[in-house]
């Protein structure tokens, strides 16, 4: 039986050693992300948002404190396929079809061919890319490529999705559409999502809670629980409740800057 807590950090510190001396990227980060949460991380560039995801994924080792993913170390969680990672760039191999790209982790994990095909069809439906499996990445728009990247992360059915600003390079219309799709996918699957963004409206629209981070060294200056209804569409952005939520996030960012 899974535990309620998906990601837990206690007094988490991370200092990088550089040619110019030590750089503290994260300082005393305490955070609990429960299963089923949609948590957005927002803050200025260089505040440690992506670094936090990389620590949770076992791609960076903390220099102090503790982090667990599903009650395990990040390295154990990786070996147990506890999470999928979606990067800023889609990172699709241009010589492989969309089908081939999505199935790549399944091939590496040596899933039987029949199960690979079944999982492929399931995630193609989830991200609304049915009929595009034989296309190559260069034949798809940027938004469609990101949906394929999300499908690849979903293919082995990890409970946790770590998403590092996946829509940041897309235009506003495409971004809005993908926000709606991601929210629908979260409702359908019940995944736990940790999502990095620089967009206040995006954080407010998507999240059950928003983690506001201060400038380096990255600290949590505020955790804001969403007051918006779980069932929401883009029209909610015109409501006073949504504007109140974005105002709280903006004030949290200002307070974080003042914390120097």
Model description:
By secondary structure, the chain is an alpha/beta fold. Helices cover 37% and strands 25% of the residues. It has helices spanning 49-56, 74-79, 98-108, 113-126, 142-154, 172-189, 200-206, 240-257; strands at 5-18, 21-34, 38-42, 64-69, 83-86, 160-164, 192-196, 209-213, 220-225. The protein has a six-stranded mixed beta sheet, with helices on both faces. A three-stranded antiparallel beta sheet has the order 2-1-4. Strand 8 and strand 9 form a beta hairpin. Helix 3 (98-108) packs across helix 4 (113-126), helix 3 (98-108) packs parallel to helix 5 and helix 7 packs across helix 8 (240-257). The longest helix has 18 residues, at 172-189. The N and C termini lie far apart (43 Å). The model has no long low-confidence stretch (mean pLDDT 91).
């Amino acid at each position: 039986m899974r535990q309620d807590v998906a990601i837990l950090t206690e007094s988490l510190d991370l200092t990088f050693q550089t040619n110019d001396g030590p750089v503290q990227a994260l300082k005393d980060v305490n955070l609990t992300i429960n299963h089923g949460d949609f948590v957005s991380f927002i803050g200025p560039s260089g505040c440690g948002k992506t670094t936090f995801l990389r620590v949770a994924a076992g791609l960076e080792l903390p220099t102090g404190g503790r982090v667990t993913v599903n009650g395990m170390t990040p390295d154990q969680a990786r070996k147990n396929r506890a999470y999928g990672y979606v990067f800023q760039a889609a990172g699709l191999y241009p010589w492989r079809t969309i089908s081939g790209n999505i199935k790549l982790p399944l091939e590496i994990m040596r899933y039987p061919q029949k199960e690979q095909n079944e999982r492929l069809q399931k995630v193609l439906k989830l991200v609304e890319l049915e009929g595009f499996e034989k296309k190559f990445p260069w034949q798809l728009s940027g938004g469609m490529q990101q949906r394929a990247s999300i499908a690849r992360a979903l293919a082995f059915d990890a409970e946790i999705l770590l998403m590092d600003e996946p829509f940041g390079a897309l235009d506003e219309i495409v971004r809005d559409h993908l926000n709606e799709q991601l929210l629908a996918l979260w409702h359908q699957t019940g995944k736990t999502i940790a999502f990095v963004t620089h967009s206040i409206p995006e954080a407010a629209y998507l999240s059950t809670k928003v983690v506001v981070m201060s400038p380096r060294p990255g600290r949590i200056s505020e955790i804001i629980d969403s007051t918006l209804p779980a069932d929401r569409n883009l029209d909610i952005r015109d409501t006073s409740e949504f504007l109140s939520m974005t105002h709280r996030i903006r004030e949290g960012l200002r307070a974080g800057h003042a914390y120097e």
